[in-house]
Specification:
The strands form two sheets. A five-stranded antiparallel β-sheet has the order 1-10-9-6-7. The protein is built from 13 helices and ten strands. Helix content is 54%, strand content 14%.
């Protein structure tokens, strides 16, 4: 919904609601005015025409009909004709104009009848109530019509303006001009107020629409997050002699990192970790696409290099310009007690030796996916892990998380966190890494996705 639609839908509804409140005010005023005139006639013996009361009650009936039409338009969301609203508000100001001309007390002197009748006072509340129409032009036109109508009524009652002998006018005669000017000014003042109120209503509607859109986006992102999280593996793979665990925490509701594992047709298990450039809903979609291609490729290829080339070829065709992804695949074999490791742009890869309490870092064997149509790779790494040894794969969200001074967590702190937790199972080692980086960051915001996989050699079961 754009701003024009807001104006034509929500704003139109707000106008109708405001018009309904305005009509309520007009009806209340007309009834009070009619009762006041009736009281003056009955109680105080005023010589005002009783037909003025009937005229006001007829106007109340007309207002009730208009109120019904406005209420129906609000319920059905139908458009109320502009001519109906214009006729309604012009009719309202004509009522006191006619009251001045025809229902003033005949006992008053001719010069006083136009300014001494209470009918002229009725024009001011009606002009003020026009503010609720939220249309400055309506209020200004109402003031103009009221001023001209009042002059016409005064002229009908015998008032005349002598341009050549202005100083000879009596006080009541000059008051007619004064009243007309005040009525005209009241219309313009009401127009200014109406303009300001309209701005506030439009701003409030715009803010409400922005909040609605944000709420819808948050809802959609939560759905996307739940879908993306459901794609992550829930059950750890079973590889005799290896414990494997993975973990992911996106920086936003969704992220461009993922980890996965899949049993290949020959019984080996491939463990994957990928990082698409950026984070948010776009990279999340690309990460899901990369996962689908990776699963398909390792289902049809027994060797890691052809599988990675297959992923690059098809995934690269779908990547937008300037986007790429890093992907590392570790093919685990229980029988050979080895891990075949191939990284397309992802690094460093950490291998921990329990016997020597040392780390060895390995770089990528190929460029990231999607940069070139063909992926040329070096030979995969063949890792033999002894008991207690570990392969640690992590995305750069860990290394590049900065503290308040701008210093990054870095590789050495990650290695130290793994070293201190080396006796724990993989899922707890990952938890310790996360706690270490959180402690280091000391409250700075996470700006990139976090994903880690730990593969640990444990004694084989019989």
């Amino acid at each position: 919904m754009d701003d024009q639609q807001i104006d034509s839908q929500a704003f139109r509804k707000a106008l109708l609601a405001s018009e309904r409140r305005r009509i309520y005010g007009v009806i209340a005023f007309l009834l009070v005015f009619a009762m006041a005139i009736a009281a003056r006639i009955e109680i105080f013996g005023s010589r005002m025409s009783p037909w003025g009361v009937m005229f006001l009650l007829a106007m109340v009936a007309y207002e009730l009909w208009t109120l019904y039409e406005v209420g129906k338009a609000l319920q059905t969301s139908h458009h109320l004709p502009d001519w109906l609203l214009w006729c309604n508000i012009l009719a309202e100001v004509i009522v006191p104009v006619l009251g001045v001309a025809y229902f003033s007390s005949p006992s008053l002197a001719v010069g006083y009848r136009a300014v001494a009748t209470p009918w002229v006072l009725a024009m001011f509340p009606l002009i003020m109530l026009s503010v609720l129409r939220l249309n400055p032009l309506v209020s200004q036109l109402l003031g103009l019509v009221a001023a001209c109508g009042f002059l016409a009524s005064a002229s009908y009652l015998g008032w005349r303006l002598n341009i050549q002998e202005l100083r000879t006018h009596t006080v009541p005669e000059t008051a007619v001009i004064f009243y007309a000017v005040i009525l005209l000014a009241s219309g313009f003042i009401a127009g200014m107020v109406s303009s300001e109120v309209r701005k506030y209503v439009a701003a409030a509607l715009h803010e409400a629409e922005v909040k609605r859109r944000l709420k819808q986006v948050e809802h959609d992102l939560e759905i996307a997050r739940s879908i993306q999280q459901s794609l992550l593996p829930r059950i750890r793979p079973t590889v005799n002699g290896l414990e494997i665990s993975g973990w992911n925490l996106p920086a936003d509701a969704t992220g461009g990192d993922y980890f996965d594992w899949k049993e290949m047709r020959d019984g080996r298990v491939v463990v994957m970790l990928a990082d698409v450039t950026g984070h948010g809903i776009g990279p999340a979609l690309l990460a899901s696409l990369c996962r689908a291609y990776a699963r398909s490729s390792f289902d049809t290829h027994a060797d890691v290099v052809p599988a990675m080339q297959h992923i690059n070829r098809f995934f690269g065709e779908d990547l937008p310009t300037g986007k790429f992804a890093t992907l590392v695949a570790a093919v685990c074999s229980a029988e050979k007690a080895t891990i075949e490791l191939l990284s397309a742009g992802h690094g460093p890869l950490f291998v921990y030796s329990s016997a020597h309490d040392t780390f060895e870092q390995f770089g990528a064997q190929a460029i990231p996916l999607g940069l070139l149509p063909e992926l040329h790779s070096a030979e995969p790494l063949m890792l033999h892990l002894d008991e207690g040894d570990m392969l640690v794969l992590a995305t750069d969200g860990f290394f590049e998380w900065e503290d308040a001074s701008g210093e990054q967590f870095g590789f050495q702190r990650l290695e130290q966190a793994v070293r201190e937790a080396r006796h724990l199972p993989p899922e707890e080692i990952i938890a310790e890494i996360y706690q270490a980086v959180k402690h280091f960051a000391a409250g700075t915001n996470q700006t990139d996705d976090l994903t880690a996989v730990v593969i640990k050699r444990v004694p084989k079961t019989a």
